[in-house]
Every structure is written in structure tokens, then in C-alpha cells.
Amino acid sequence: AARGASVEHAACYRRAAPEGAGMRGAWAGGMDAVTVSSAEGLANLFAMLGEEAARSLSGVPLFVPHARVAAEAQRRGLERVIVAGPGDAEMVAALVAHFGAAR
Question: How far apart are CA 41 and CA 17, in angstroms?
């Protein structure tokens, strides 16, 4: 703008915990796997599930993009943590490899 350019601002991304009653009801049926993209997202998941439901995550494979997120998951007591990689394609490939091997 200082050099004469026209500048517009558009907020396209926002980090915030989801609003609502949580996921306790959805979790009741069980999950085959969970993907989390950040340690903050993991904290939000734990908050939405509540302590008891969050403990049930320990037996579910958790796919994460980076070793830092894996370390946070392990700190929270999760044991089946798989570092998939930072991209969507890597996450999908890790899920396919995991469940393809499970058959």
C-alpha cells in the first residue's frame, strides 16, 4: 500500500476449538482411526471427548503429521501413534498402508 498497491485483507483461516456439546455421543460407536494435524487439535479433541472417553483413544491408531505431535500424543498416554508426514497425500498413504496391512 505504501508503494501504491491496492491491498485487501481476507481472513481465510482461524484456529479455534469447535463449539458445541462435544463428541462423546459420536465416539460411543467406536473409531477405527483418528487423524490429528496439530498438538492444539489433539488438545481440543481431548477436551471435547472428556477424560473418560479420551482414555479410550489409547487403543485407536492416531495418525499425526510430525514427531512433535506424536510426542504430545504419547505424553497424553496414547500408544498407537503413527507419524504419517505433513501432507494430505502422506496421511492418506499412511492410512491405506495401515489398514491394507491389517487385512
Answer: 8
